[in-house]
Structure prediction request, 283 residues.
Amino acid sequence: MLNVECDYNIKEDIRFILESENLNNIELSEKTGISRVTLDSIEKTRVTRDSVCEKIYSFAYMNNYRINAVKEELIKEKYHNVLFHGSKYGLSAVTILGSRDNCDFGKGFYLGETYKQALSFVCEKEKSSVYSFRYSFDDLKIKRFECDLEWMIAICYYRGTLGRFSSNSMVSKIINEIEGVDVVIAPIADNKMFYVMAQFTEGEINADVALHSLSASKLGLQFIFKTEKALKNLIPIERYYLSNPEREDCRKFLNERSYEIDTKLKLAKREFRTGLYIEEILK
Prediction:
């Protein structure tokens, strides 16, 4: 188990806003609707009430301060090896058994290589937040996937859509390799992408159509820490508050991205009509 003892750096972020906007606490109070007493108290003790955080970070975001995104750049410059995790309700501790069985690669702690990735998975939830972690792969066994057939089959297996093909020898070989490592590194597959994969496992589209459609995702890589040994190679850095304006912008981005995947699926169906179907691949 990994304890996650980090929170919003609201005290430092308020200081940044005051300096950048050339404001004092009285003026910031007037602009945000936060009482001076509350602002003064933050200087003495870290305040994390959602109502206060929302006013502070919404004010910053609406004034074009992309604090969270810029922090990503800075911590990567400082630590180099940094990953992000989106949490719907907040984290106090992490275990490898905390995820659902039907996640992309089974049980494990899932992280992405960018802040925006992590945000995209939790932007629909009001109380969600993103966490950053330092990591290393010292003494860990790693399995890497590309956006290819092996990757797609593995995800369909863990998400439970392979049906009668689940015990196929090719599938078993892939799964055994996954379960024998500490960390899996693979392209991210969200629910929109899995809709395309499901059409492949149901025999509606061939593998070429599916993979060319999925290549439109551009979501980057996910890192799944699957063992307790792997968790020991993670160090929490910071928790990031997701204001309503930032989450709304993310939802707009995801909506636009879904149109791109839909369009590429339709074009791929026209272009790649001779690819192999699941029955032909998993005989």
